[in-house]
């Protein structure tokens, strides 16, 4: 018998994997996500559990159980159900506080889920926050999937035979089968967990929406435990449709890119014309941690053709290094020291780099009021990550020059991202586009917004046709960070390619935290050691607080700088 070295392809029903994962879910979500839940039986089991944890609850539990028996199957429709339910949940809430037992509070929430209707706004308000918190716990299950897959594989195969009791061929076959079976279980568990995570998010979103007064006809006359997931899915359907449209659009772009690549290979086979190396050859020519950004450029022989490559010889046809990701904990601490009011924004920016070897951020748009420190955050982010920064002022960049100017013109120049790569000497600089919404809207010479589109999409950025070099350059490792005060007026295709992060201006409560970084910035601007600028005392802080009650960082910096200057002048006179 001949055995293949490749394990067979097996599939496990995701429903079986879901049934195994459901008991591991947090208590409230487990009730919402169990399609086989029988409410009367669940109520009886819950009554026994409540009596076991709190024997003093026997009276309200008996009243609740009697209401169950009297109401039949439509427990949430019967008004006789309300008083016993309220008495039981009130007792459990008081018990949880007096005895410091969060489990009693969770049991009260389950009572609400099982015996309240989908249109009960108060019950939804009570359950919204616990459901959100339990949604976060679902992600922790992903760490246990490999162990579960291994355990299910052993159960499926049974006890392994002794090594000397089987031939080599049989052992090889058994190993292949175990590998295939474990892979199948891993895939099934991953699919089931993804499905459960989506339903859990839908349930939590529905609870929050119903608590805020949203109305869905499906929730009328349905128990709350049955209503949350369908109502949430109906609410999130437009978002799911939008994501599906984006995926279809990306797939079309990839297919078009593959079609162009195949056409180039056909032309090369028929004409024998030399072309730039394809992606596989580029990866072979580039050592690990390097990228071929600009392949060999064909010069025309004219002075203009030769001049277009002048100054870029050090990046043309040469693999360039990628700046590695530094210690993210140290970067986060440094940024939070300078921007204590932007913790959420900093964390979401740095989340892109977790687990990565090279520093490349997703195309991001920082939106916030003037003076919130958006541009400075981009500058300091590049500094702490060790990335070279290339700044573009959208208010002054007329036309589409950011994407490069054609070789036919006397003012020909490569794309700004290519110039940034040349300045940095590496393949992943950071492009900062300031005041994006204030870019010129006339289309006589193109628009900055339109020129950005192909450089923000990873697929098209990898094969960007530079108009000056007239070759495909790889800009997929360049980081793009833009700032604006409002997204109003920005075109939809541009917003579709950018991750939008809100950055609020600091408030008065952040004043003390901002004094030290602003003093350090003032000292750096003056070329001084921060130790030469002593900390501000209580009177100085009170004076600044009267002049700044939150808002623009620029105004706060001017106030502190004026106070420091006045203090230095006073010391000099004395």
UniProtKB/TrEMBL annotation:
Residues 360-507 form the AAA+ ATPase domain. Residues 261-287 have a biased composition (Basic and acidic residues). GO terms for biological process: chaperone-mediated protein complex assembly; mitochondrion organization; protein quality control for misfolded or incompletely synthesized proteins. One of its GO terms (molecular function) is ATP hydrolysis activity. It holds the Pfam family AAA. SUPFAM superfamilies: P-loop containing nucleoside triphosphate hydrolases (SSF52540). Residues 254-288 are annotated as: Disordered. PANTHER family: LON PROTEASE, LON PROTEASE HOMOLOG, MITOCHONDRIAL. This is ATPase family associated with various cellular activities (AAA).
């Amino acid at each position: 018998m001949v055995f293949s070295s490749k394990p067979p392809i097996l599939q496990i029903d995701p429903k079986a994997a879901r049934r195994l994962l459901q008991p591991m879910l947090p208590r409230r979500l487990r009730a919402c996500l169990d399609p086989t839940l029988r409410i009367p039986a669940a109520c009886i089991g819950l009554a026994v559990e409540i009596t076991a944890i709190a024997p003093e609850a026997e009276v309200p539990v008996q009243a609740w159980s009697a209401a169950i028996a009297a109401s039949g199957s439509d427990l949430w429709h019967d008004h006789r159900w309300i008083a016993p339910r309220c008495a039981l949940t009130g007792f459990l809430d008081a018990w949880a506080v007096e005895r410091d037992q969060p489990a009693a509070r969770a049991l009260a929430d389950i009572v609400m889920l099982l015996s309240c209707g989908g249109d009960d706004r108060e019950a939804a308000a009570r359950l919204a926050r616990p459901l959100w918190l339990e949604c976060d716990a679902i992600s922790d299950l992903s760490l246990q999937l490999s162990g579960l897959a291994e355990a299910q594989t052993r159960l499926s195969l049974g006890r392994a035979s002794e090594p000397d009791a089987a031939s080599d061929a049989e052992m090889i076959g058994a190993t292949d089968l175990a590998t295939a079976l474990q892979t199948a279980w891993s895939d099934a568990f991953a699919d089931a967990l993804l499905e459960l995570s989506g339903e859990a998010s839908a349930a939590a979103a529905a609870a929050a929406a119903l608590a805020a007064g949203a109305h869905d006809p499906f929730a009328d006359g349905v128990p709350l435990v049955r209503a949350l997931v369908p109502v949430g899915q109906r609410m999130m359907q437009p978002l799911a449709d939008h994501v599906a449209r984006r995926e279809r659009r990306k797939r079309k772009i990839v297919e078009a890119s593959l079609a162009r690549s195949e056409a180039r290979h056909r032309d090369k086979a028929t004409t024998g014309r030399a072309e730039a190396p394809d992606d596989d050859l580029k990866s072979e020519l580039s050592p690990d941690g390097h990228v071929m950004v600009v392949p060999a450029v064909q010069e025309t022989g004219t002075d203009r053709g030769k001049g277009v490559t002048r100054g870029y010889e050090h990046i043309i046809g040469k693999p360039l290094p990628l700046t590695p990701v530094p210690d993210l904990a140290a970067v986060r601490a440094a940024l939070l020291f300078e921007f204590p009011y932007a913790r959420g924004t900093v964390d979401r920016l740095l989340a892109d780099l977790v687990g990565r070897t090279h520093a490349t951020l997703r195309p991001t748009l920082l939106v916030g009021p003037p003076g919130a420190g958006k541009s400075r955050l981009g500058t300091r982010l590049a500094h702490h990550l060790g990335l070279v920064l290339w700044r573009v002022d959208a208010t002054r960049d007329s036309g589409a020059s950011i994407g490069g100017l054609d070789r036919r013109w006397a003012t020909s120049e490569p794309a700004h991202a290519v110039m940034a790569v040349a300045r940095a000497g590496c393949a992943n600089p950071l492009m900062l586009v300031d005041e994006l919404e204030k870019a010129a809207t006339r289309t006589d010479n193109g628009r900055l917004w339109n020129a950005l589109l192909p450089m923000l999409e990873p697929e098209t950025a990898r094969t960007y046709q530079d108009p000056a070099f007239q070759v495909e350059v790889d800009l997929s490792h360049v980081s793009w960070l833009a700032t604006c005060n409002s997204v109003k007026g920005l075109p939809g295709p541009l917003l579709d390619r950018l991750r939008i992060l809100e950055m609020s201006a600091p408030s008065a409560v952040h004043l003390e935290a901002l004094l030290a970084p602003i003093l350090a910035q003032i000292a750096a601007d003056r070329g001084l050691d921060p130790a030469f600028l002593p900390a501000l005392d209580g009177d100085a802080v009170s004076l600044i607080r009267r002049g700044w009650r939150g808002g623009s960082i620029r105004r706060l910096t001017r106030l502190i700088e004026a106070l420091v200057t006045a203090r230095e002048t006073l010391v000099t006179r004395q």
